[in-house]
Specification:
Elements (H helix, E strand, L loop, with lengths): L10 E6 L5 H17 L3 E4 L6 H10 L1 E4 L10 E4 L6 H9 L3 E4 L3 H15 L3 E5 L5 H7 L6 E4 L16 E5 L5 H14 L13 H16 L2 E5 L5 H12 L4 E5 L15 E6 L5 H12 L5 E6 L17 H10 L1
Helix pairs in contact: 4-5, 7-8
Length: about 325
Amino acid sequence: MGRMTATPARRVLLAAPRGYCAGVDRAVIAVEKALEQYGAPIYVRHEIVHNKYVVQTLEKKGAIFVDQTTEVPEGSIVMFSAHGVAPTVHAEAAERKLATIDATCPLVTKVHKEAVRFAKEDYDILLIGHEGHEEVIGTSGEAPDHIQLVDGPEDVANVEVRDESKVVWLSQTTLSVDETMETVDALKSKFPNLLSPPSDDICYATQNRQIAVKKLAEDAELVIVVGSKNSSNSIRMVEVALDAGAPAAHLVDFASEIDEAWLESVTTVGLTSGASVPDVLVDGVLEWLAERGYADVETVKTADESITFSLPKELRRDLRAEAAALSAE
């Protein structure tokens, strides 16, 4: 008789932390509270967070997402997304007599304040980030005459400054930590007096999720990242997994997007999610994997997260009355 070959046990390594960060949680709750408090519609400038499911769920509850402030009817309430907006957007809202709720993540607000401070001190500010990202547009708008974008290490050769003794770098909060520091190192080679911001501008949640996905990549033949294709931090996690040695890594919004062919010869699947992803979507992937023999789930914990942010102060006022008063002026 031939010897029986044991089938390797299939398992899922589930990253912790994963999913919602404090800034996203705050922004999503802010939309829900505003709808409860003031009733629909609540207009939201751009997607409140970069996740398809979250946006669709809030739309069903009465949120209306718009690309421009000019699309919001006068006398309405408009909320600014977690990614932040430039001062010109606040001015547009005031012109249109809109009551506003600012759901900008406090960590993004911190970067905005640093940009304003360094601009007042007449520094050239090198903003590391991706062109066209909402957060970059918002931060750049705080000091457009002082900020220039540096989109990765290869962009450093194009950077020119007025005074090499007065240069500082700031960063989009959702980048790959490794990639950002690679860009910083390249900038420091070119500008030895380059000043760093007073504290690390890559947010704690981005760092923690990337550390966790690196841990998954050590043992998983396949890493699945749940997140939307316009989510910068989710895209970075796929890249981090591959850079850390995972043979394959893919980004999906829903379990239905997983290709069964990815599971061929895979015994260990790593699973995580971006900072704007609710756990219900991860649960859906776990169910999908369990149906295909990956029922053994092991949590891989690399950090504890206890940070919370208070809701926007505007939710403690009667904004409908304020909007009506503005319209009457």
